[in-house]
Write a structure and sequence with these properties.
With 146 residues, the chain is of the alpha+beta class. Helices cover 28% and strands 17% of the residues. The protein contains three helices and five strands; from the N terminus they run H-E-E-E-H-E-E-H. The chain is globular, with a radius of gyration of 15 Å.
Length: 146
Amino acid sequence: MIGSSIEPPAEERGCAFCAYLRGERPYTILKRNGETATFVTREQRGHPHLLVLPVRHVPTILEMTDAEAAAVAIAVRDAAILINDAYSKPGIAIWQNNGVPAGQAINHVHFHVAGTLEGGGTEFGPVTEISVEQTDAIAKRLVAER
């Protein structure tokens, strides 16, 4: 992109999200269509905490097409609706980071959608990763409400 100084994280071993989408590594994919995917992340910074991303590998929001941006926005809204319906949280946080200085950790644009924690807010410090079995259980509860 002309004039962009955003530096996404380096891909030392390839894109983890792309590997999940290809089925090369286990991960809970809640929803997927031709343009977007919604994951249940193993790093639950809210409850529940989902990730919404374009299926095509796109490093930052600056490289998304208009169609991808529209599809991702709808998928983010849909993820928030699922959280609200299944967990009745008093708040839902949505955030997205571009570039290493902004806190982007994976070189594939993604939006975080998370129900607030007990007492409010989300956890931005270290969190313990939960198992795929636990993320599968979260996915089951989310889709059961639809």
